[in-house]
Amino acid sequence: MAYFTKRYHPPGTPAGTLIETPASGRLPLQIRLIDYDEGRIMIRDDVKVAECAPFLEKASTTWIHVQGHPTEALLREIGTTFRLHYLALEDVLNSGQRPKVEPFDDQLFVVMSMPEMRSGRVEVHQVSLFFGNNFLVSFCENSSASFQQIVKRLGEQGSRLRSRGADYLLYSLLDMVIDQGFPVLENFGLELEEVEEQILGTSYQATLGRIHSVKRELILLRRLLWPQRDVINQLMRGDDALVREDTLIYLRDCYDHTVQVMELLETYRDMTASMLDIYLSSVNNEMNQVMRLLTVIATIFIPLSFITGVYGMNFDRTVSLWNMPELGLPYGYLLIWLVMAAIGLSMLVYFRRRKWI
Amino acid sequence: MAYFTKRYHPPGTPAGTLIETPASGRLPLQIRLIDYDEGRIMIRDDVKVAECAPFLEKASTTWIHVQGHPTEALLREIGTTFRLHYLALEDVLNSGQRPKVEPFDDQLFVVMSMPEMRSGRVEVHQVSLFFGNNFLVSFCENSSASFQQIVKRLGEQGSRLRSRGADYLLYSLLDMVIDQGFPVLENFGLELEEVEEQILGTSYQATLGRIHSVKRELILLRRLLWPQRDVINQLMRGDDALVREDTLIYLRDCYDHTVQVMELLETYRDMTASMLDIYLSSVNNEMNQVMRLLTVIATIFIPLSFITGVYGMNFDRTVSLWNMPELGLPYGYLLIWLVMAAIGLSMLVYFRRRKWI
Amino acid sequence: MAYFTKRYHPPGTPAGTLIETPASGRLPLQIRLIDYDEGRIMIRDDVKVAECAPFLEKASTTWIHVQGHPTEALLREIGTTFRLHYLALEDVLNSGQRPKVEPFDDQLFVVMSMPEMRSGRVEVHQVSLFFGNNFLVSFCENSSASFQQIVKRLGEQGSRLRSRGADYLLYSLLDMVIDQGFPVLENFGLELEEVEEQILGTSYQATLGRIHSVKRELILLRRLLWPQRDVINQLMRGDDALVREDTLIYLRDCYDHTVQVMELLETYRDMTASMLDIYLSSVNNEMNQVMRLLTVIATIFIPLSFITGVYGMNFDRTVSLWNMPELGLPYGYLLIWLVMAAIGLSMLVYFRRRKWI
Amino acid sequence: MAYFTKRYHPPGTPAGTLIETPASGRLPLQIRLIDYDEGRIMIRDDVKVAECAPFLEKASTTWIHVQGHPTEALLREIGTTFRLHYLALEDVLNSGQRPKVEPFDDQLFVVMSMPEMRSGRVEVHQVSLFFGNNFLVSFCENSSASFQQIVKRLGEQGSRLRSRGADYLLYSLLDMVIDQGFPVLENFGLELEEVEEQILGTSYQATLGRIHSVKRELILLRRLLWPQRDVINQLMRGDDALVREDTLIYLRDCYDHTVQVMELLETYRDMTASMLDIYLSSVNNEMNQVMRLLTVIATIFIPLSFITGVYGMNFDRTVSLWNMPELGLPYGYLLIWLVMAAIGLSMLVYFRRRKWI
Amino acid sequence: MAYFTKRYHPPGTPAGTLIETPASGRLPLQIRLIDYDEGRIMIRDDVKVAECAPFLEKASTTWIHVQGHPTEALLREIGTTFRLHYLALEDVLNSGQRPKVEPFDDQLFVVMSMPEMRSGRVEVHQVSLFFGNNFLVSFCENSSASFQQIVKRLGEQGSRLRSRGADYLLYSLLDMVIDQGFPVLENFGLELEEVEEQILGTSYQATLGRIHSVKRELILLRRLLWPQRDVINQLMRGDDALVREDTLIYLRDCYDHTVQVMELLETYRDMTASMLDIYLSSVNNEMNQVMRLLTVIATIFIPLSFITGVYGMNFDRTVSLWNMPELGLPYGYLLIWLVMAAIGLSMLVYFRRRKWI
Asked: Nearest-CA distance from A72 to chain B in Å?
């Protein structure tokens, strides 16, 4: 996850300008048209936008799903067909928007952030939804297996999704996007549990890097997911006639999930902060232990080495009796060993008593 | 307590799906039916759900308590009998939900988190309550002695619990669940007092681990208990005709308890943060003391050892008078001892004066 | 101040249960009856509860002050006489409640926390007040000189306290309890000023303990005093007909005091946090200074000792001219002294220039 | 600035008690009477309170400014003349109140905190204002040049201050008091910029003390100035008929200033926190650098000294050929120098490569 | 960016005083007059203020853009022509105001802060806008290319900017100012990514300075940009008839941008805090590693050096057999080497096993 993810126009550009950004290894563009009512369903892939127009007239629910990054021309075409506002289309093109819901006349424009684990790293993709009375246009830059899941449920005769209108489809998509947070957070939870085991055991530089990367991703994820709560909340208030009364109960369930996701995120943030503290003091503790033992050893031998130094001096014993008479004592060597042992032991005892070793 | 406790479906699953998770060493499932009014009480264990249905017709209060993890089939059966919403039933099965209250038509669905001390560790279990006009269905994965307490009180002729309806039973259960927080917090309080004694005394690595584990459990507990306040608050607002006017005064008492629990939690969190600071500076202080004394000793002996090194050199005194004439002085050895004593003492005095030892 | 101060019943106990906790060295129970109106005052000590009943009928204001921990029997008796709610009585018995105000029919139940300095330590006692139209029942576990102060003012003919009703008495008691905060905080202020002088001077372990104990007491005090603001605020809103219009102006004054107390508490908390930071860096600074000087000394002597070591080696000069020829130089010894002095001085100069000593 | 600045009565004292605190080197008391309308102005110094009374009857605006600490008698006299509430008078006498505005019948009582730089230190003085329909009574313990500024503007014929009533005078005084914050904050800004230059350069203990003192004063200043915002806000709401519609626009300007002052304070607080962090890590960095170089030197010489120690041993070469044969080699001394040089250099290279020196 | 950026008058100066501050190397003053409606546009540079007056009468939209710091005389002239309030004019002259919107009669006065990257550093300039029914007067001290962008769009026949009135021009300018935040934040994002790479690699003092400077600029930028949200919010509430209904949708887009800017700022602040933590522990870790290895080396050689010291003592072997008999052993030298090797190796093994090296 990069720090700055928003694509933006140079300041001063008129609002609603559609400028295509160079596609960098994106998925090939795919448009899928699904038209269904309780009785029948029709799924057509790689349709032309013009082919969708007639379906809007009918009472059945029409869902256009655009996968991959759309071109400017395509957006314009879709915009004209479904009468979408160009301010909203601009936000589809400049992905990296924060989650929001914006009412336009008889439509709602909803932006969501969908987190996903990809080869051990979190990726966040923008999902844009236009939602009108009997249609829904969805954009997702990334191919998610979960969208396929919804299509599959639509295919099942008698499923709740089939018998209800576009607003229930909207709810199902929102719920799916939000629920993507759980596997991601479960992943973070496992990571934190692993880190926790590490920090009170041995401490490597790697642990530090891991805590940092978790913290960093949580901070960035938080910025992207936090506004989702407001999105669902705004939809739940039901100011728009577009969302029917009996769908509100499902949105409430959805809201509950966003709150759970955010609470987990906050808890994990608290935990990483706490873990960093513990890690640091753990490292410190270990270092202190090393330093302590080693310094104690050094300190015991320093005075002893001094003594051996003294008796290694070459004062001329032949000049006077006062020059190093100890060297001439018959038991001088033994004596000096005893003295050194006494000094060493008493220091050991002292250190032990003060609990330094 | 694990970091990630929620059981969740794969994203894209339709809302209200009941999928049984493999039971891991859970309690055997027990269903108890209690039907009472002011005059009489009937308690029946291990009933079939079908047997409960007739009691719903009567004016008396019916309480079904399900202990252990329910199977999908049982939930469906209960759901049909008591006309419970499948969105709520999903939350019973996927335990680890955050506390909440959700109104469904003529029912309330309440989720609570019940903390308990089990062999020195905190465990949190989900308690789910369905509450209608004259019935209450409660689910608890764990056998708690406190539920038994309520049953006992119900058994007492003339107790307030008997003479009032299902809403007072709801209050009693909520109050019981919330009050479980006090023994848990008392436990934390004692733990913190013990830790406090340790940190200003000697400091072991163990203290650090203990502070961390208290902090960790408080963070997790906070996430689970915090929403309980909102639950009680929502019930107190009395929007639902289900809770009678004269029960509100008891809910207020209950609310007061949740606030107390949360305030204690927050205070303890502040205390652990403070304790970690103190612990760290205490460890630091102690280490500094060790290092200081030991370094002082080393520093005093280093120049002295240098002097003994000088007079241990083998310059040839026979070549010239300038080569180490000190070695030939009659009192050279004594002199050098005096010089070394003077140096050592003056350093000691200097260190003392600067309060380094 | 202990971490966990609330006395609580085992979870599942019915609300309003009065269970006496074993009295541990408490004050002997004292009941004082004061009945007054503008014209006359009557003070009677150690009355029976039954004797108070007739005074309730009269228009004059009746104040019952219970000092010490009441027995269950006494509470029941008072409860019956003054028609007090058993939920409130439970809170009187289980002291350690958070400050709150609870309306019951035609009464108000107010709980306050009264901090006091006792032999240099903060103690907090619960003050419980029942306040009706023409009576006030107060409970305080501790004998406070300040209650006596109010009684004295009541005794003064023509004092404002005498000429106004029970609500002004309530205000006077609340004001007195809140103002107890000022001497306690003044004490903390003085303590902090003393600590501040210490931290930038020499740093002992004792300073750390002192900062910790101030911080700890502020955290605990904050939890107990913070809700007082809400209590006064709730009374000021004047929803209850019990508090007369012209007493509200005094409650506003009282509210102002609670805000001042809380702001001081918060400021002190900020200060202790800041002081801990400064203390730690101060200790660190001092330690660095010690380590630096000592290490410099060691570093200068280590190369010099190496040199003396070299010329203390016993290579056989008789074998070849290449073996330690320096030892045979006429001025070798002087030379080596010059070399060592040069090395030592240049290191000193280098360290000086880099400002390490 | 002291930690505890409020003068308070012993708890239990009746509200509105006026007790004079012993004046400690305060300014001599000065009373100035100014009476003006659009056409004329009259300024009289050292008036008696009784002389002011007649001016109240007139339509012209009357301003009494009391400089220095008033005596109890004077306050009583002013209180009676202008019908001021004794609760407010108590707050004038017990200076150190928090800024607030309190409505009394047909008057407003406003308390403000005026910060000032005095010989490099911040001082905060209480300014108390009583404001009625056509009069304003102001109290300030300190002689501020800025009050003189207002008087001077009043003197100018045709100034806006002259042509408008007492509410514009009130605004002008409030604005003046609030704007005192800017020079004080400018001072802090300069101080912080100086500190910032210091912390990334050399680090002295003095820098630490400076950061601490800035932080301390900001914390204390914040407590005193923060409530000013509420004061202006409350006046702006215009609940009182006293402040005329066309003065509100000026109060809005004034409010803007308080917000600016508070935002600067908060920003500076953030900056000092950040600076302390940087200072600490800067000190740490420098210390690490010292320790590293010095330890490297020690480490290189320790093995070398060991080698010289080995060849300084006195094993008897005459006993066997195995005893220190190296000493008898013709080039032994040269060899040992080569060995030592090799060891020293390879260690240097190793340390260099790991970037330790 | 300096800490204290506001120009202010000495306290006590009357509101609305216009005092010119000495111009320090500012741009030459430029006044540009643009008058347009859907059909035609007229751009005139370096006009006199008097020439603008007639345009106000017409229905077409008149935009006066003043670049550079205006003189007092000019401001007065503009003020009189467009009937601008002197309180607002004061804020134009004393730049460094916080963003705000103030309604005056039939005008709005809007202050914005425009951040810009100039040679790698952030600069913030005040943009002041007066907005009436059919005119807009804008002041900007700095020449921004983005203003030119708006002029260019105005020049395009049929652009939305031309066909709508002054309120859409206001929106376009606000949007442009706010969008200036994105390149600045992108810059910070890149800086943070670079710093992040540094902190987990090698750690130089420079990294610390860089983190500090980013943190500092974010804190200052936050203070300047935060109130922009309120500005747009206030305009969006549409209390003023000046902003037409159909422009509100654009302001909503604008508001969305301010929120994005602020969220990025907050996220970056969190990130720098996190990075400082990581940096510090990274430095600490590296230092620990150095100290550990070096101390281990020292500790191994200290006892060995002691042994060589012992056998360097000169006890007189001729006096007795007890004086250093080891020196006379035929294999004494070999033996002592073995002993030293054994000690050294066992210490190495011990240290290895405890993972200290």
From this structure: 30
Please say whether the beta carbons of B341 and B302 come within 8 A: no
CA atoms within a 13 Å half-sphere pointing along the CA-CB vector of E66: 23
Q: Give the C-alpha separation, C341 to C351, whole Å.
A: 15
Contact indicator for E124, E109 with CB cutoff of 8 Å? no
Which CATH number belongs to the domain containing residue D340 in this structure? 1.20.58.340
To the nearest whole Å, the CA of A243 is away from the closest chain E CA by: 21
- Confirm whether A198 is domain-assigned: yes
In this complex, the residue of D146, D260, D285 whose CB is nearest that of residue E12 is: D146
- Which residue range(s) make up the domain with A306? 290-353
Q: Which residue among E176, E296, E306 sits closest to A308, beta carbon to beta carbon?
A: E306
Q: Rounded to the nearest 10 degrees, how much is the dihedral formed by the CA atoms of E236, E238, E241, E247?
A: 40
Verify that C159 and C295 share a domain, yes or no. Answer: no
E158/chain D closest Cα distance in angstroms: 41
CA dihedral of residues E95, E100, E101, E104 (deg, nearest 10): -50
C126 with C113: CB under 8 angstroms? yes
Structural domains in chain C (count) = 2
Q: C16-20: list long-range contacts, CB under 8 Å, 24+ apart.
A: C16/C85, C16/C86, C16/C87, C16/C89, C16/C90, C17/C90, C18/C72, C18/C75, C18/C76, C18/C86, C18/C89, C18/C90, C18/C93, C19/C72, C19/C93, C20/C71, C20/C72, C20/C93
At B25, give phi and psi (nearest 5°).
60, 40
What tens digit of pLDDT does each residue of C24-81 get? 555 678 889 999 988 889 999 888 888 888 888 888 999 999 988 888 888 898 898 8
C-beta atoms of C190 and D302 within 8 A: no
Range scoring the smallest mean pLDDT among A8-12, C189-193, C264-268, C306-310: A8-12
Mutate to test the interface with A, among E127, E302, E357 (most CBs of A within 10 A): E302
CB pair distance less than 8 Å for C295 and D297: no
How far is the C-alpha of A11 from the C-alpha of C353, rounded, in Å? 52
For E314, which of D150, D298, D314 is closest by C-beta distance?
A: D314
Confidence of residue A225 (pLDDT cuts 50, 70, 90): confident
Left, alpha or beta for D105 (phi > 0: left; psi -120 to 50: alpha)?
left
Residue the block writes with tokens 């007493």? C247
Helix, strand, or coil (residue E108): strand
Element at B161 (helix H, strand E): helix B160-163
CATH of residue A343: 1.20.58
Choose the mutation target among D113, D291, D315 for the interface with E, i.e. most E CBs under 10 Å.
D315
With left for phi above 0 and alpha for psi between -120 and 50, is residue B74 left, alpha or beta? Answer: alpha
Note the pLDDT tens digit of each residue in E177-194: 998 888 888 888 888 888
Is E253–A15 a contact, with Cβ atoms under 8 angstroms apart? yes
Residues B97 and B214 in one domain: yes
- Which chain E residue's Cα is nearest to D319? E330
Q: Which residue from D minimizes the CA distance to C174?
A: D12
CA distance B63 to A171: 35
HSE of C329, CA atoms in CB hemisphere, 13 A? 12
Tell me the average confidence (pLDDT) per consecutive run of 10 residues in chain E, 357 residues long. 71 76 65 90 88 85 89 88 88 86 88 86 89 91 81 86 88 90 88 81 70 86 87 81 83 88 88 84 78 83 91 89 88 92 93 82
> How much is the pTM?
0.81
Q: Is the ipTM of this complex over 0.85?
A: no
CB A228 within 8 A of CB A258: yes
- Quick one: E327 and E273 in the same domain? no
Q: Are B2 and A291 within 8 A, CB to CB?
A: no
CA distances from C111 to B77, C139, C170 (A): 49, 10, 12
